[in-house]
Amino acid sequence: MKIILKQPVENLGDTGEIVEVKAGYARNYLLPRSVALQATPQNLNVYEQEKKRLAMKQSKDKNEAQQLADKLQTVSLTATVAVGEEDKVFGSVTSQHVAELIKAKGFDIDRRKIHMEEPIKALGVYEIPIKLHSEVEAKVKVWVVKE
Description:
Blueprint: E1 2-5, E2 18-20, H1 23-30, E3 36-38, H2 41-73, E4 76-81, H3 95-104, E5 124-133, E6 136-146
Parallel strand pairs: 4-6
Antiparallel strand pairs: 1-2, 1-3, 5-6
C-alpha cells in the first residue's frame, strides 16, 4: 500500500515522502495515529496544496525574521551592573536581562531565542546571537558598564 507521510517515521521516511508499506502496518498503525495518509489521487492533491501553503508561510516567516534581524543589528544595549573592587561584577548579565533590555528598545524577543554560552560576568562589549528563525540569526551588541 502506498502512503504519504505526514511526519517523519524512523526507518521509513521523512515528512511528505510517498512510501510503500505493508497494508496491515498502514491500516493498524500509521493511519489510526494520523502519521500518514493513503496515497489516493485526491489525497495527493490535498497534500500538494498543503505543501505549497506551508512553503509560502515558511518564506513569509523567514522574510519577517530577516527584516527584524536587520533592525536588531543596529541596536546597541547598555547593561549597568554593580561592581566591586578591581571592577569585579556582582552577579551576571543573563539572557533574561538581555531580553528585558531588548524589550525596553521596543522589540518583543523571547529569552529562549537569545543564545548565550554562559552569563556575562565581566565588563566590556559583547555580541549576543539571537536565533529568530531556523535560517536567520541576528547579533546584538551589549555594553556591560558599571553603575
